């Protein structure tokens, strides 16, 4: 692990200095919109995996960093129920749930049981945003989602983090993988850039591949590209 990288936990990141856990891109309702719908109990899957990372880190605050919902418009009743169930489970674990809006979250104000933020500043100076728009506030560090990064390792596409020591506004920047089990991953070895103002260049980013609950950190993509297939 790069020495300054915040500790990851599954597809989430734990920030002990802020007593906070951050996850991104739940995309509640995505399973119903895909062929995975009949095969995956999305509510149970999200509830159980989120409960596991909350139990492992015991945070005071859990920030859901955008695209909590999948539908761009008004969410379906089941998606609203799932989202409120997740918020209730976070509170039952003794933590405070915080919602940050993403580009899919046009209906989030009516679905979320509390205020919705464009960005959220943690106690240690970290700013959490979704990543589809540039946050207006300066920060000690930025954490976002939106990109759904993935990397192909030995022929298998694996979800990954992206860490840049001097990223957005020359601050350390961490991009989280999608927490949703069915959100499509973007293969960063095939790309020169991604659709986020917080990631000005992929070459400087270090991918951290999620594997069996651990994160395997690789050198920057500029060093990896000669050894990766871009097809």
TrEMBL record:
Signal sequence coordinates: none
Calcineurin-like phosphoesterase domain: residues covered: 21-132
Coiled coil, from the record: none
Pfam families xref list: Metallophos (PF00149)
Domain of life: Archaea
Molecular-function GO terms, alphabetical: hydrolase activity
UniProt protein name: Metallophosphoesterase
Organism: Haloplanus rallus
């Amino acid at each position: 692990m790069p020495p300054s990288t915040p500790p990851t936990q599954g597809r989430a990141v734990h920030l002990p200095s802020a007593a906070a856990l951050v996850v991104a891109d739940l995309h509640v309702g995505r399973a119903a919109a895909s062929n995975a719908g009949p095969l995956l109990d999305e509510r149970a899957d999200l509830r159980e995996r989120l409960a596991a990372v909350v139990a492992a880190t015991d945070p005071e605050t859990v920030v859901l960093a955008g695209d909590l919902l999948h539908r761009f418009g008004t969410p379906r009743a089941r998606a609203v129920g799932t989202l409120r169930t997740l918020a209730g489970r976070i509170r039952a674990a003794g933590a405070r749930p915080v919602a940050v809006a993403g580009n899919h979250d046009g209906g989030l104000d009516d679905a979320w049981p509390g205020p919705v933020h464009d960005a959220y500043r943690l106690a240690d100076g970290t700013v959490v945003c979704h990543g589809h728009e540039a946050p207006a506030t300066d920060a000690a560090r930025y954490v976002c989602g939106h990109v759904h990064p993935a990397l192909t390792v030995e022929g298998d596409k694996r979800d990954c983090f992206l860490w840049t020591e001097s990223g957005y506004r020359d601050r350390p920047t961490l991009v989280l993988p999608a927490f949703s089990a069915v959100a499509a991953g973007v293969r960063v070895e095939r790309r020169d850039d991604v659709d986020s103002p917080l990631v000005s260049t992929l070459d400087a980013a270090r991918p951290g591949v999620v594997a069996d609950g651990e994160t395997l950190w690789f050198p920057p993509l500029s060093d990896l590209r000669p050894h990766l297939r871009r097809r």
